[in-house]
Design goal:
Layout lengths: L4 E3 L4 E3 L4 E3 L6 E3 L40 E12 L2 E9 L11 E7 L6 E7 L10 E8 L5 E8 L5 E8 L10 E3 L13 E7 L5 E2 L5 E9 L3 E8 L6 E2 L5 E3 L6 E8 L18 E8 L2 E10 L4 E4 L10 E2 L6 E8 L4 E8 L5 H7 L1 E2 L1 E2 L3 E5 L6 E5 L10 E10 L6 E2 L8 H7 L8 E10 L7 E9 L4 E8 L13 E8 L6 E9 L2 E6 L4 E6 L3 H4 L5 E6 L5 E11 L10
Parallel strand pairs: 5-26, 31-33
Antiparallel strand pairs: 1-40, 2-39, 3-4, 5-6, 6-7, 7-8, 9-10, 10-11, 11-12, 13-15, 14-15, 15-16, 16-17, 16-18, 19-20, 20-21, 21-22, 21-23, 24-25, 25-27, 25-28, 28-29, 30-36, 30-40, 32-33, 32-39, 33-34, 34-35, 36-37, 37-38
Length: 571
């Protein structure tokens, strides 16, 4: 904690007095007081590792994010808390660090705290006609009486996508190490008029419908629209399609990885979808579309057995996002241990395929986040699970508050910016002087600032409210030419007439940066590969203000973070 500090006029920098280090084998990362889905066959056909200079450095491998010891991971496929153990089932290629057709299995890791993980043997591998070309994403459900089951998408030789069922061999085993495929697989086939059978995947976790029967939704692309198709079952074995979808839209991109869950406005407790939902609850429908996870808030109409959004927004570019950065295929689950709903997603590498082969690994999962509905009932809020704070001692976890001394200098807001906030972050970057902002953090900066990542805010005045732009600008994050270095961004509303403080929490874990703005109203995950880390050089961090209005820093807390034990081999 530091005393209040004011930052005014262009590029005012503030000392952030803390010391981090990556590991015993890497140089210190410290605060400075300076004032300045792939394709291409099975993995036998994967390219051989070329000579890549420093991307193979262990400094890019995260210290407390979830990833296997080696090889490729992508979607989180099933999450559950069972007999005192957290389970993460995930898309995994056991053969190499690329996504290769026909090789995708389900990896499986367990934890008691969502931070430290033990990798077990894969639970599903492609070995049946209904999944011979891949065991793709699905979900885990705990049935009445505590029986866990898994539904997953299998891909047959002709790229026909079907839904398969899996049971634990020994339900008394809290680690659920062995599973058996149901004898009647596939339990759901793509027999829907107009359905593209190669775009029919990713069943949700089950919930109880208005008639007491189980429901699931499956993402689907039809001739003229995309939908979350609705199915019901009495026993989770035999499924019947409901004659209307849970929800549909005329999007051109397929809805992948749908998620459907109940939330109470202003209540950060989670709701269990396998029991009756209390009055006053709303529902969130999330889908992975294009490159982002988007969602709608509405109600589950029990009479119509359908999701009805509170606001109909035809242009999906205006839909809210779970995360505005490198984040996809998220999955949530009800944590019965602590009565909360937890969500996390996949963050893919932003370097090139040959770099991934050279490293021998690709993909991470973000920090698990508690997710709940804001008190106004309009948007979801997210925050890293409390358990991650147990690691505070090695990498960087920074919480900072920016206090606005005046809001008179706010520039006018243009609603068209909502259609492409990334573009606006590029046009209104940290070096562009403004009224209120830009202000924020410069992180992972080299001595001469040739490399740096900027997480910053700008404040705009709309007709009746204030809109805050949050950006994570990676355009100068690395001097290497191969990484993808965009400027991510998103907007959120804030009642600055009542509250003048804007919070920012940023977790820095080598190549992963997760930032939470405005108490979790906008979340941005970024992947960065600065040479300053691999070269064992010093990386700096600054707070700054490049706006005309004074911004105070009344509170700053910074911790280093220990390495978590994440799927460590040989114990």
């Amino acid at each position: 904690l530091i005393p209040s500090v004011a930052m005014a006029l262009p590029w005012a920098f503030v000392l952030l007095p803390a010391l981090f280090f990556l590991s015993s084998s890497v140089t210190n990362l410290f605060f400075s007081n300076s004032s300045s889905n792939g394709s291409g066959g099975r993995c036998s056909l994967c390219p051989q590792s070329p000579e890549v200079p420093y991307i193979v450095s262990t400094t890019y491998r995260t210290a407390y994010h979830f990833q296997p010891p080696r090889n490729w991971i992508n979607d989180i496929s099933g999450l559950m808390y069972y007999k005192g153990i957290y389970h993460n089932f995930y898309q995994y290629n056991p053969h190499c660090a690329l996504w290769c057709w026909g090789d995708i299995a389900w990896g499986h890791s367990v934890s008691t705290d969502l931070v430290n993980w033990i990798q077990l043997e894969p639970v599903i591998e492609p070995d049946n006609p209904s999944d011979i070309d891949g065991c793709w994403t699905g979900s885990a459900t705990i049935l009445s009486g505590g029986q866990p089951v898994i539904l997953y998408t299998g891909v047959s030789r002709d790229n026909c996508q079907v839904q398969n069922l899996l049971f634990p061999k020994n339900p008394s085993d809290p680690y659920l190490r062995e599973w058996t495929k149901a004898g009647n697989n596939p339990v759901i086939q793509p027999v829907v008029p107009g359905l593209n059978r190669s775009c029919f995947r990713d069943p949700t976790t089950g919930w109880i419908g208005p008639d007491g029967l189980w429901r699931i939704a499956v993402g689907a692309q039809l001739y003229s629209y995309n939908a979350a198709l609705l199915y019901k079952s009495e026993d989770f074995l035999s499924w019947t399609r409901v004659d209307h979808p849970l929800y549909s839209h005329n999007l051109s991109n397929m809805w992948e990885c749908p998620d459907f869950f109940a939330v109470l406005p202003g209540n950060n407790s989670g709701l269990d979808m396998s029991v009756s939902i209390p009055r006053g609850a709303k529902h969130a429908l999330k889908m992975s579309v294009g490159y982002f996870d988007k969602y709608l808030i509405g109600v589950y109409d029990l009479k119509r057995d359908a999701f009805v959004p509170d606001t109909i927004v035809d242009d999906c570019r205006l839909w809210l996002r779970i995360d505005y950065g490198d984040f996809y295929a998220s999955k949530s689950f009800f944590d019965s241990k602590k009565g909360r709903r937890i969500i996390w997603g996949w963050s893919q590498e932003a370097d090139c395929r040959s770099d991934d082969v050279a490293k021998g690994w690709a993909g991470i999962h973000t920090i698990p986040r508690t997710i709940w509905l804001d008190s106004d009932g309009k948007q979801l809020l997210q925050w890293p699970v409390d358990e991650i704070e147990s690691l505070r001692t090695n990498e960087a976890d920074v919480e900072i508050y920016f206090e606005l001394t005046s809001i008179n200098a706010a520039e006018p807001f243009d609603p068209s910016w909502l259609l492409d906030p990334e573009k606006h972050c590029c046009e209104a970057g940290a070096s562009v002087h403004g009224g209120i902002g830009p202000f924020g953090l410069v992180i992972l900066a080299s001595n001469n600032m040739d490399e740096h990542t900027v997480v910053h805010f700008r404040v705009y005045k709309s007709q009746q409210k204030y809109m805050i732009l949050m950006c994570s600008d990676l355009r100068r994050s690395s001097i290497r030419p191969s990484p993808y270095t965009p400027a991510y961004g998103g907007f959120f509303e804030l009642d600055l007439a009542k509250e003048r403080k804007i919070s920012l929490r940023t977790l820095i874990d080598r190549s992963a940066v997760e930032s939470f703005g405005g108490g979790g109203r906008v979340c941005i995950t970024s992947r960065v590969y600065p040479a300053v880390l691999a070269d064992v050089g010093r990386a700096h961090m600054y707070a700054f203000n490049n706006g005309s209005a004074t911004v105070r820093v009344p509170q700053l807390s910074a911790w280093t973070m220990r390495n978590a034990h994440v799927n460590v081999e040989n114990g």
